[in-house]
Design brief:
single chain; putative 2-phosphosulfolactate phosphatase; 3-stranded parallel β-sheet; 8 helices; 6 strands; 10% strand
């Protein structure tokens, strides 16, 4: 339960946190320049960071048990929506467009998204509805978790890769999967 990860409980500790899909998704990007981990809780911080990089953005949703996950798609859609509003048009794939539509439909009631999702209904049945209430809060953390050099750390800005001579900035794009 995320409610168990209080500042008092984890301060100064290395944490090993395994998920059914998140761990595998993050590890697939070992060779990437940097991987930013986004959630509703840190969405504004992630948007600011990604927008400042001037690079293409690929958004990968972890899902749940190798399946599509409504709340992941809504979070990705909110990320796309904010990037578009703050930094202009981008080339979107179909998954990004679907996430955008879902995000706009749930933007006024994110808790409903969690309650209506398959995983959310399971958590309610198990007595963890307070976890949903916590996870549905928007912009409660000003942190930038990044996966870099096989570690997840906070507040580490990832410097953009050096451009090769003669290369052009390919512009912004957003994709979700």
């Amino acid at each position: 339960s995320p409610t168990e990860y209080t500042t008092e409980a984890v301060k100064g500790s290395d944490i090993i946190f395994l998920t059914t899909n998140g761990t595998r998704i993050i590890s697939r990007f070992k060779g990437a320049h940097g991987v930013v981990i986004a959630s509703l809780a840190n969405l504004s911080r992630v948007v600011t960071h990604l927008g400042s990089q001037g690079l293409n953005v690929a958004i990968c949703c972890a899902g749940s048990r190798d399946q599509f996950c409504l709340e992941d798609s809504v979070c990705a859609g909110l990320l796309v929506d904010r990037l578009l509003k703050q930094y202009g048009d981008a080339e979107l794939n179909d998954a990004a467009r679907v996430g955008l539509v879902l995000a706009r439909s749930y933007s006024d009631n994110l808790l409903a998204c969690f309650r209506e999702s398959s995983h959310g209904r399971t958590l309610i049945e198990l007595g963890f509805e307070s976890d949903l209430e916590l996870c549905a809060r928007l912009d409660t953390l000003d942190v930038l978790p990044v996966y870099f050099k096989e570690r997840i750390t906070l507040e580490q800005e990832i410097e953009p890769p050096l451009e090769e001579p003669g290369s052009k900035n390919p512009g912004q794009s957003a994709a979700t999967s």
